[in-house]
Design a protein that fits this description.
Blueprint lengths: L2 E5 L5 E2 L2 E8 L9 E8 L3 E9 L8 E5 L7 E8 L2 E9 L4 H12 L5 E2 L24 H10 L8 H10 L1 E4 L5 H17 L11 E3 L6 H7 L2 H11 L3 E9 L15 E3 L4 E7 L10 E3 L25 H18 L4 E3 L6 E5 L4 E3 L11 E8 L3 E4 L4 E2 L17
Parallel strand pairs: 2-8
Antiparallel strand pairs: 1-3, 3-6, 4-5, 4-7, 6-9, 7-8, 10-17, 11-12, 12-19, 13-20, 14-17, 14-19, 15-16, 15-18, 20-21
Length: 405
Amino acid sequence: MKYKVHVNNSFGVVVGIVRIQLQAIEQSDGLEQVEFIVELVGDQLIDNISKIVVPAETHESWIGFHSHLLENNVYKIRWSANEDSGEVEVRVRNTGDLAEKVSTQLNKDSVNLFLTGPCDTSLYNYNEQDIIPWYDKDNYHRTLDSLIHANKIDQKLEPCFRQFLDEGWFEIENHVEAELLDRLLVDLEHAAANGDSGFTPGSSQRLQRMHLKYQSFWDLTTYNKTQNILDQLMQVPTTVSQIIAFVNGTQQAAHQDTVHLTVYPRGYMCGAWVALEDVQPDSGELLVYPRSHRWDAVTMNDFGIQKVHNGQWTEFLSTVGGKWQSMINDSGVEPFIYRPKAGSLLVWHDRLMHGGSVRNNTDLTRKSCVTHHFAQGSVVFYDSTGLPGRTIERDENRMLGSLGK
């Protein structure tokens, strides 16, 4: 059997957790085990590690490393599996004040360079208050006053950010230009008719990775107006992950994003949802639970359950999902039904409880798109599956020429 590796990089640049995935070049039905060896080399050998993996089991057949624990520089990843071996050159680029703080904290907490098991919140110290975002610290309204006074936040955003502090979400109407909205709708209809992401008419299925297929969704993913707002909110330049489009309402149960789109330090992720059409009653509208962003984050480690593999969500829904529902029931908070106009932007805190209502009228669509924004310099992963995350770097628009449509 011949092997190769795939490294989650952007044109050779790596940030956060770097995933080195062992892949079989030839198709095989077997579950053969192989010793996967990885060496990190700078001017000299930095460290090495090995792991017995089954290449066909993609959730397990990888080795990761915390690039925050390395200097920003060029490194070689040398690997071997049975008789095969190779080398991949990458440039570590964790830049900015937050990246420096994360690096310092990881070293202080003696976090291991390599990961041979799933990513999990138990690996990190979430109690360190110095590195959480300003809006999750005490006196956040006073801090907002100071940031506005120092011209670090546009005063026009003050009402929105005040609402974010108090309720965990805000809306900006007429955010997306009409020309871009038109292109997004055309491309979404094309994707749905083409069965992208396995979409079938009338279903609540999501359409994934639309930014790689359609210029309009790339333009929304890298939309300067949205990036500028999130940059000001986090007070850190932001990057994007998890671009998802919707034709119909998802009917997804209420949840926090922290377990699905996980970040260290906690709080440095926000969802940005855009309505591509006027949302009608009974279409499966979004529900948000005001002030729930101040509730505790629910994690996989709270229950000691296995990470989700191969779409098997039963145990997750009965434990994590059950906890979310009990938190809502105990709080007495009533959801806000969100019915925006086309082009409106909804931004929410990563701990805000939100979901989709029942599609009482299945003839109605709820065309929309969501992006998830992370602070540059943070550690991004998926607590529910244990996999490292991958964000789109600001200069990654170099790939536009490769987009198909």
